[in-house]
């Protein structure tokens, strides 16, 4: 099983990111505090991977959890060493920076741990009992700056319809969004998806850009 993905972000849906690597696309679950550091669609990305396999009846399914460095993945694995914490619970609880959670564990701060999603009184006690005195390495890391997302005006509904069509036609999201934005800037009177798509095609044909 692989432990790292180096590729390009295709799209994001909440805290799941789809990464294209080697001609394949992988859905990777990002803990909340990690998701803020992962770039938007179209950008290159490197993620350290924790793979979890679960049986569902006669079928099995892998879930991939992503991290921006190996220390974050080790901290996630440390949380998993607590008997009452599973991968989904650990990912949800990883909603604060790693250093802050590690400090709460080291100091026995049950109140802070209880404030993390999915962690109640008993799980907070279990985490401290298992990991207190064992998190020094996680306290030393400098948290990377969070991804700054610039404010964007909402896309008109007809433009969202056109975007869905372009994605089905195998355009990358960032490319499709750019085409739509540039077309609406040149033709602000467009008010429906069909006209928008026609205008995009007309402009690409005029510039000699392959459709």
Radius of gyration of CA atoms, rounded to a whole number: 22 Å
* Largest sheet report: 5 strands, mixed, barrel
Q: Would you report the number of β strands?
A: 5
Highest-level CATH class of the largest domain: Mainly Alpha
Query: How does the overall form come out from the CA principal axes?
Result: elongated
Which class of secondary structure composition applies to the elements? alpha+beta
* CATH hierarchy: architecture of the largest domain: Orthogonal Bundle
Q: What share of residues is helical?
A: 40-55%
CATH homology superfamily name of the largest domain: 5' to 3' exonuclease, C-terminal subdomain
Report the end-to-end length measured between terminal Cα atoms.
38 Å
List low-confidence stretches. Answer: none
Number of domains: 3
Q: What is the CATH topology of the largest domain?
A: DNA polymerase, domain 1
> Proportion of β residues?
15-25%
Q: Numbering strands along the chain, what is their spatial order in the largest sheet? A: 1-2-3-5-4
What's the quaternary structure here? single chain
- Mean of the pLDDT scores? 87
Tally of helical segments: 10
Q: Please trace the helix and strand order, writing H or E for each element.
A: EEEHEEHHHHHHHHH
Topology of this protein?
Elements: E1 4-13, E2 16-21, E3 24-29, H1 32-35, E4 44-56, E5 59-67, H2 70-80, H3 87-93, H4 98-107, H5 110-115, H6 121-131, H7 136-139, H8 157-168, H9 173-186, H10 193-207
Parallel strand pairs: 3-5
Antiparallel strand pairs: 1-2, 1-4, 2-3, 4-5
Helix pairs in contact: 8-9, 8-10, 9-10
């Amino acid at each position: 099983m692989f432990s790292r993905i180096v590729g390009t972000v295709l799209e994001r849906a909440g805290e799941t990111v789809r990464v294209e690597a080697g001609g394949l696309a992988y859905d990777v679950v990002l803990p909340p505090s990690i998701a803020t550091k992962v770039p938007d669609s179209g950008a290159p990305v490197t993620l350290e991977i924790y793979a979890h396999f679960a049986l569902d009846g006669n079928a099995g399914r892998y879930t991939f959890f992503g991290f921006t460095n190996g220390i974050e993945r080790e901290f996630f694995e440390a949380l998993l060493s607590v008997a009452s914490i599973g991968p989904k619970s650990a990912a949800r609880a990883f909603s604060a920076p790693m250093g802050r959670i590690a400090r709460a564990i080291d100091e026995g701060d049950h109140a802070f741990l209880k404030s993390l999603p999915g962690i109640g009184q008993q799980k907070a006690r279990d985490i401290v009992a298992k990991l207190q005195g064992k998190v020094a390495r996680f306290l030393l890391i400098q948290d990377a700056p969070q991804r700054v997302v610039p404010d964007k005006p909402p896309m008109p509904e007809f433009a969202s319809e056109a975007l869905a069509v372009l994605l089905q036609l195998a355009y990358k999201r960032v490319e499709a969004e750019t085409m739509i934005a540039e077309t609406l800037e040149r033709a602000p009177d467009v008010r429906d998806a069909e006209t928008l798509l026609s205008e995009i095609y007309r402009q690409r044909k005029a510039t000699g850009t392959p459709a």
